[in-house]
Amino acid sequence: MPTGTVTAPEETVMSVTTRLRRRAAGVLAAAGCAAASLVAAAGPADAASLWHCQGTTTTETCTRVTSAPASGVKVYDRITGRTYTLYNGNTVYIRYWYRDTSGLCGVNGDPYVWQAYWTSSDGQQHRVMIGDYYLATGPESYWRDFRSPYGGTLANWYGGTGSGTCNVFRPGN
To answer: pTM of the prediction?
Structure first.
């Protein structure tokens, strides 16, 4: 299950023990949030929720799944080759965005698709393609101007056009 922690960038070098303690605390906090999301109703789908969080090794731009059906959204992990289900309240971090020309991954009138990531508790990184409709990124006018931790804004992370369902979405098709 995807997890994420919200942390401020550190300017000092942390010991391995401190990092492990923080990771364990983050995993426990994320698990508590995930459990709470199963009980609480999801907020409005159009409420933007972007923030900087700690990814596997770098600061990333995070958001939550908010418009998934009760059964979740099935996503194909391009790193492990397995299919996972994301539920409302799950946290992912996003990098590249694409415009879907087929309407098969960018769904419900929202043509945008994100390359999204999460790191599982065993340290395995996961990379999937998911329609913007399912994420709390807000309207394009909001997320395009959101500051990327890599510099610039998310508008700079445009990966091009693509087509196909999310499990086979390929830019340039």
So the answer is: 0.72
